[in-house]
Amino acid sequence: MGRRRAFDEDEVVRAAVGLFGGRAYDGVSVDDLVTHLGVHRNSLYKTFGSKRGLYLAALRRHLADDVRPLTEALAAAPDAATALRLVTSADLGLLLLAVVERAPADEEVAAEVAAALATIDQAIADALGIPGDLAAALTAAALGIVLRGNPDGVGTALTHRFDPLD
User: Fold this and answer.
1) What's the maximum distance between 2 C-alpha atoms anywhere in the chain?
2) What is the per-residue pLDDT across 43-53, written as a single tens digit (0 to 9) for each?
3) How far is CA 148 from CA 71, 143, 145, in A?
4) pTM above 0.85, yes or no
5) CB 75, CB 83: distance < 8 Å
6) Closest Cα to residue 92, out of 152, 41, 143, 31?
């Protein structure tokens, strides 16, 4: 009879979202995971198979817990300025890091990221009644604002330019 797990898998995955979202995949070692998540190395491998396995679980949790609610809110956005504010205020750290760091090197991550971005684009397109390519451009602009590190200042200036879309 095997030993019972000494950790809550759900809590570990949630904590991993924060760790990977703050430092990126390559910035987190297995030793970091063991130390910060309070999971023994053998338990980590037995449960998730690898660091990558835990990363994928964390990415999927982030998409479910942070990106899906964003898309639901975007679907009700009354105007482009609101959509922009919703995207720039959302916790999308792990998604953004996945886009730039892991998606180019990992097909499975690339597929998860592409699906999430397409869902965001579609929610914006549907809510605002605009073509998909324009919604994708709005998503790209909003994510660029987040990457620049000044969502309030740049976002406020940009929202004043969205009047023609409303």
Assistant:
1) 66
2) 999 999 999 99
3) 22, 9, 5
4) yes
5) no
6) 143
